Amino acid sequence: MKIFKNIVILTGAGISAESGLATFRASNGLWNNHKVEDVATIEAFQKNPQYVHEFYNELKKELVKAKPNAAHLAITKLQNEYPADINIVTQNVDTLHEKAKSKNIYHVHGQINQAVCLNCGHILETFGDVDTETVCPNCQVAGMMKPNIVFFGENLLYMDKVDELLRSCDLFLSIGTSGVVFPAAAFVQTAKYYGALTYEFNLEPTSNNFYFDHHIMGKAGVTLPAFVDEMTASLKNGD
Ligand SMILES: [Zn+2]
After folding, report:
1. 109 belongs to the catalytic site
2. Which residues 6+ apart lie within 8 Å of 137 measured at CB?
3. Are the CB atoms for 138 and 117 separated by under 8 Å?
4. Are both 139 and 202 inside the same structural domain?
5. CATH classification at residue 35
6. Which of 56, 65, 106, 194 might form a disulfide with 158, Cβ 3.0–4.6 angstroms?
7. Does the predicted model carry a pTM greater than 0.85?
8. What are the pLDDT digits (tens) for 192-204?
C-alpha cells in the first residue's frame, strides 16, 4: 500500500448503528419515530419551536449515553499513528468521534450537543436542555436558539472546507453511508475526480458505484480496524 498524505474519512449512520444508534433519518421518513417534517424542517421549527426543542432534548439524552465502537476507535488510531493529514467528515449528529478522541471532525449535518443563536450566530455547546426561553450567553437575547442540526432545505455546514479537503486528498474512505445519495455521492465523485484512491466500507455493496475503487463489505467495527492495521503496517514495511 502506498503512503498517503491527505486522507478524508466520510462517516454515516452505519458507523453509529454499530453503537446501537438506529434513530437517524431513516428511509421510512421517520426520525426517532417522529415524522421528519414535524421535527427537521425550518417550517416546523417556526411553527412550533418548543416541540422541536423537546424532540432534540430527548434525542440528546439518548445520544449522550452512546459509546464509540471499534470503528470509531480505529479512526482515532489511524490519526494517532499514521503521519498524514486526516480529516473526518461526518453526516452523524452524535458525538461518537469526539468520544473516541478523534480530531479534525466536520459535522456537515450539525451536532446534537449544539444550539445556534439566530440573533448573533453564537454556538452554545451543551448536552443539557435548550428551549424557547434559553438565553444566548453571547448576546443575552432569549428565545433565539435553534438546535444546530441541519434541517431539510438548509445548506450543509463546512462545505467550503470539505470541498477543499476533497480536492486535495489522496485517499478517501467512506464508512457506513450509501455513497449513492447526496452528499456522500458528490463527495466521492469530487475525491475521485481529483485523483484520490477511494474505498467504501459497508454491510453491502452500494449498487455498482464506479467512483469507488474498492468495496469492503462487513461490519465496520471489524473491517476498519483490520484496514487501519494494514495501513500502519505498510509504514514499517515501506511497501
Ligand atoms: Zn446570541
Report:
1. yes
2. 122, 124
3. yes
4. no
5. 3.30.1600.10
6. 106
7. yes
8. 999 999 999 998 8
